Amino acid sequence: IELGNQTLRLNGAGVREKVVIDVYAASLYVPQKGANTDEVLNQPGPKSVHTVLLRDVTAQDFVGALIKGFKANNSAEQYQRYLPRLQELGKLMEEVGSARKGTVVRVDYLPQSGTRIYVDGKRQGADIAGEEFFQGLMRIWLGPKPVDSTLKAALLGRQ
Fold it and tell me: b/e per residue, 113-150, with b = 16+ CB within 10 A?
């Protein structure tokens, strides 16, 4: 894909499962392919995660999972520092409301402006400044306690 005047490569893609239910498909795009979390998160330039919902999801469920995953994969200090930004992101998602099966959520990181959210191609709210915030979000999927270890391996191109 093209983002911020740069070509990004598909690093990996997979499906998030909860119990036996497919929740969403996710794909990770970066400037250079990386085989581990640090290689992916620490490379300069834009990055993007695309998710396609495979079932209906309420905004409250989405936001709750986001906050839980962020807290589990970042330090207590990072969590407290970014809680206002997480709440801001939560507010954006609540304004969108429930997402139906097939909804596409895209989270882009642009070095000049920060984290930018799109739902079904429509930009949601203002950019959220800071690369550390984007990295914290990515740890939800790529951190030490990912929401789905099989999905983590897939996003890192191991499956």
Answer: ebbbbebeeeebeeebeebebbbbbbbbbbbeebbbee
Full-model pTM: 0.90
Residues in the chain: 159
Take residue 40 and report the two structure tokens written for it: 């992916």
Q: In what order do the strands lie in the sheet with 9-18?
A: 9-18, 21-30, 47-53, 104-110, 114-119, 122-128
Query: For residue range 85-129, what is the model confidence (pLDDT) as tens digits?
Result: 888 777 877 777 778 899 999 999 999 999 998 989 999 888 988
Tokens 């807290």 sit on residue: 71
Q: Which residue has the tokens 């507010």?
A: 91
User: Cα(150)–Cα(43) distance, rounded to whole angstroms?
Assistant: 23
* Unique residue bearing structure tokens 């490569």: 9
Three-class DSSP category at 80: helix
For the stretch 36-51, pLDDT in tens is 999 999 999 999 999 9
pLDDT of res. 148: 93
- Cα–Cα distance between 142 and 7 in angstroms, integer? 22
